[in-house]
Amino acid sequence: MTALPARICGYTPELGAEIVRRVGVGESIRSIGRDPAMPAAATIHKWLSENPDFAEQRREARSAARRAAASAHLELIEARKARRKHDWGRRDLYAVEIGEAICRRIAAGESMVDICAGPDMPVTGTVYEWLRVHPDFSDMYVLARGVQAELLADEAWSIAKAAAPTTVPVARLQFDVIRWRAARLAPKVWGEGDKASGPTKINVFVQNFGDGEVISGPGVGER
Questions:
Q1: Region of residue 26 (left: phi > 0; alpha: psi -120 to 50; beta: else)
Q2: Residue-wise over 70-86: b if at least 16 C-beta within 10 A, else e?
Q3: How far apart are CA 124 and CA 113, in angstroms?
């Protein structure tokens, strides 16, 4: 087992000067006493009580350290104030061309998440901030969402036409989801408005568009 080095127990001016130096840069007596190459904290406090000159040097060093810490804190506050005057990281990079590109892709059916995942596109948070501060972009966005809702309505119609007796449950689920999405995008056109007081029941019929015969649906075959 390796023996621990003996702790320093005798005061010397050189040792006192080193302790004062470390106190001057912000170290505490307890921190200095944890250093195996220095005397224990209890020993340093004993020296301070026995040596008035050493105690005075330590007081001056501690006061200087506190003044330096307060000055550094004030400088940090002033630096933060200066950064607030310059709106770092918040420069508005909106351009009409970017807004038009986003709206074209929304109108084509893409989601905002997919669009903003591209390396040449802003993040979603930036786009929504642009919608808040740029009325022209906001107007384009509303129109694009309306077009997207129309496309969804067409998609729902295609699903309904392609449904067969064996695929009615799946077709009904797809139709409901698409209809809900369209109502979210264009509530004035596809929403329920004041009519909806609870869950809406949707009847899905499968019709042969050749001769007009209804193949399946609520009530079909009951007569």
A1: left
A2: eeeeeeeeeeeeeeeee
A3: 7
Residue 216 bridge partners (DSSP): 206
- Give the integer Cα–Cα distance in Å for 193 and 4: 83
CA distance 53 to 128: 67
Comparing C-alpha atoms, which of 9, 14, 17 is closest to residue 47? Answer: 9
CA dihedral 205, 209, 211, 216 (to 10 degrees): -20
* Strand ranges for the chain from DSSP E: 206-207, 214-216
Cα gap 29→196, rounded to integer Å: 74
* Per-residue tens of pLDDT for the chain, all 223 residues: 444 455 666 888 899 999 999 999 988 899 898 988 889 989 989 898 999 999 999 999 989 988 888 888 888 888 777 665 544 445 678 899 999 999 999 888 888 889 999 888 999 889 988 998 899 999 999 888 888 888 777 777 677 667 777 776 776 767 676 666 666 666 665 555 544 444 444 454 455 555 556 555 556 555 4
Taking the C-alpha atoms of residue 148 and residue 111, their distance in angstroms, rounded to an integer, is: 10
**66 phi and psi, to 5 degrees?**
-65, -40
Write the CB contacts of 221 (distance below 8 Å, at least 6 apart in sequence): none
pTM confidence score = 0.40
What token pair was written down for 201?
């029941």
In the chain, what is the straight-line distance between the N-terminal and C-terminal CA atoms, in Å?
99
Asked if 150 and 185 count as a contact pair (C-beta separation under 8 A), the reply is no
